From TrEMBL:
Protein known as: DUF3243 domain-containing protein
InterPro entries reported in the protein's UniProt record: DUF3243, Uncharacterised_YmfJ, YmfJ/YflH_sf
Species: Halobacillus mangrovi
Gene3D superfamilies: Protein of unknown function DUF3243 (1.10.760.20)
Recorded superkingdom: Bacteria
Length: 86
C-alpha cells in the first residue's frame, strides 16, 4: 500500500519528512520552497488516490503561483504535528 492511498498516512509521511528536514537544519524558507515543488509535481504528475488529494489537485490547478505557494505553506502547517515527533 502506498502512502498516497490514505490521506492520514500521507499526512503522517509528510510530517515525518518535515521533522527530518528541520532536524537537519533546513530553514522555513527552504521547507516552503520544497513544499511548493512537491505540490507542483503531485498536481501535474501523480493521479489522486483519494478525495482529499483530488480536492488539493483541483485547488492547485486553479490557483496562480502565489496561491500555490499559500497552499504549499498550509500543507506544511497541516502536517507539522503529524508523524512521529523528533
Amino acid at each position: 500500500m502506498s502512502v498516497l492511498d490514505n490521506f492520514d498516512s500521507w499526512k503522517s509521511f509528510l510530517g515525518d519528512r518535515l521533522h527530518q528536514a528541520q532536524g537537519q537544519g533546513m530553514d522555513q524558507s527552504a521547507v516552503s520552497d520544497l513544499a511548493y515543488e512537491i505540490g507542483n509535481y503531485l498536481a501535474t504528475s501523480v493521479d489522486a488516490k483519494n478525495d482529499q488529494e483530488a480536492v488539493l489537485r483541483d485547488l492547485w490547478n486553479v490557483a496562480d503561483e502565489k496561491e500555490q505557494h499559500a497552499i504549499a505553506n498550509m500543507m506544511v502547517k497541516l502536517v507539522k504535528n503529524e508523524g512521529t515527533q523528533p
